[in-house]
């Protein structure tokens, strides 16, 4: 089936006109591809493989033509819904199913400028969006009506939104500030002016209540939400970190960078990385999505989506090609049945995970046999104080700001 997949990637061209169904004979003997295009949706990619008079059909995924570039996507926490924030400032919500074409159920003009960040909150009843207009908007998914809006959530553009707990969410702005919002109290409960440039990504470790952030200033920060303090910040790196995930049961932090190198940090030792993985260079790693404790899915500048093993470090295999344009964001559906990807081609793709991973081997269980940087002794605990950041370039920036009680999460409408 690996050969079939490669053949499909090479040969699948522009879809036929609406409603038309065709079969295409591939270079690989006995392999056919069938697709249907309807109302702008390429909704089914199907392999029909003939082997010894047997035909097997494998569902590959769906496409949604958004007509404009998407900056972010998020899946509903319990239903088959996916949201996308567009460069136009619009918020789109689609309902999807494997046996039918996706249907747009909501279109909202959310922001005056682009919609950079999208996240479901309140068990999926509300969608939050962030924008360069500095606002965060809450939208009811049933009615499409604005629930509330915070006009000046950050001094500059809101670049990222990340869910933390059921009642808290973090936002990252272009001014380098990370804020944590309590959706019950509708207020800002933590604010960390830790970076000098825009926030590229964030990751949350719930057991220790640590929020990690990466920035265009070339550093990684660790903020303690319990003490409301910046615990530590990495040394400056010329290789800008773009994406971040926590793996190996909390022992390792992985950062994708602008050069394509993946930086691997040991928990508790964040001043400098303990390992580097360069196999994806020179393509920037724009997005990281954790599959399990051993494997991560990467979205890179060359349009490829790849499965990468961590410690031992290896590219297991490219699993999909979104387009010739950069893959900007990746996300899992609530049941992890689908992998969503967006790029500059204005297409939202929903990939069937089982089909993508069928040649990647069995799921890795337990610990890695041998970690390349031997981190037996570098485990972080709350009893070990962070190393002093004395003498670093940004020692005065790593501080938590006092909270303004008037900084409401949602201004009354």
UniProtKB/TrEMBL annotation:
* Entry similarity comment: Belongs to the WD repeat WDR55 family.
Q: Which key words tag this protein in UniProt? A: Developmental protein, Nucleus, Repeat, WD repeat
In terms of PROSITE patterns, this protein maps to:
WD_REPEATS_1, WD_REPEATS_2
Q: Where is this region: Disordered?
A: 363-413
Spell out the Acidic residues composition-biased ranges. Answer: 371-381
Q: Biased-composition ranges for Polar residues?
A: 403-413
- Where do the WD repeat units fall? 192-233, 320-355
* Location within or outside the cell: Nucleus
The entry's protein name is: WD repeat-containing protein 55
Q: Which Pfam families match?
A: WDR55
Task: Name the source organism.
Answer: Mikania micrantha
InterPro entries per the UniProt record, alphabetical: WD40/YVTN_repeat-like_dom_sf, WD40_repeat_CS, WD40_repeat_dom_sf, WD40_rpt, WDR55, WDR55/POC1
The yes or no answer to whether the keyword Nucleus is present is: yes
- Gene Ontology cellular component terms for the protein in this record: nucleus
């Amino acid at each position: 089936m690996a050969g079939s997949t490669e053949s499909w990637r090479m040969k699948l061209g522009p879809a036929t006109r609406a409603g038309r169904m065709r079969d295409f004979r591939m270079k690989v003997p006995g392999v056919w591809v069938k697709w249907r295009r309807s109302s702008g949706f390429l909704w089914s990619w199907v392999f029909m493989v003939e082997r010894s008079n047997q035909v097997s059909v494998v569902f590959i995924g769906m496409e949604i033509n958004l007509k404009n570039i998407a900056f972010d996507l998020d899946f509903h926490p319990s239903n088959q819904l996916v949201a996308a924030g567009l460069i136009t400032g619009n918020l789109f919500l689609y309902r999807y199913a494997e046996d039918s074409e996706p249907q747009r159920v909501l279109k909202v003009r959310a922001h005056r400028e682009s919609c950079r960040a999208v996240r479901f909150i309140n068990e999926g009843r509300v969608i939050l969006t962030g924008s360069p207009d500095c606002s965060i908007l809450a939208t009811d998914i049933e009615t499409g009506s604005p629930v509330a809006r915070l006009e000046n959530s950050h001094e500059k553009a809101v670049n990222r939104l990340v869910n933390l707990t059921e009642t808290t969410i973090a936002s990252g702005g272009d001014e380098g500030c990370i804020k944590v919002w309590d959706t019950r109290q509708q207020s800002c409960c933590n604010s960390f002016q830790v970076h000098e440039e825009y926030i590229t990504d964030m990751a949350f470790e719930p057991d220790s209540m640590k929020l990690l952030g990466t920035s265009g200033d070339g550093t990684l920060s660790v903020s303690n939400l319990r003490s409301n303090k910046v615990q530590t910040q990495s040394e400056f790196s010329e290789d800008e970190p773009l994406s971040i995930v926590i793996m190996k049961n909390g022992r390792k932090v992985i950062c994708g960078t602008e050069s394509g190198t993946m930086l691997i940090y040991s928990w508790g030792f964040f001043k400098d990385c303990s390992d580097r993985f360069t196999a994806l260079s020179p393509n920037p790693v724009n997005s990281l999505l954790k599959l399990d404790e051993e494997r991560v899915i990467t979205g890179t500048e060359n349009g490829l989506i790849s499965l990468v093993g961590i410690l031992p470090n290896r590219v297991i295999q490219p699993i999909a090609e979104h387009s010739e344009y950069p893959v900007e964001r990746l996300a899992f559906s609530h049941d992890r049945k689908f992998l969503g990807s967006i790029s500059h081609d204005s297409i939202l793709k929903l990939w069937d995970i089982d089909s993508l991973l069928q040649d990647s081997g069995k799921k890795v269980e337990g610990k890695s046999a041998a970690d390349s940087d031997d981190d037996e002794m570098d485990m972080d605990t709350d009893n070990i104080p962070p190393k002093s950041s004395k003498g670093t370039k940004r020692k005065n920036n790593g501080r938590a700001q006092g909270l303004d009680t008037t900084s409401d999460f949602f201004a009354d409408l």
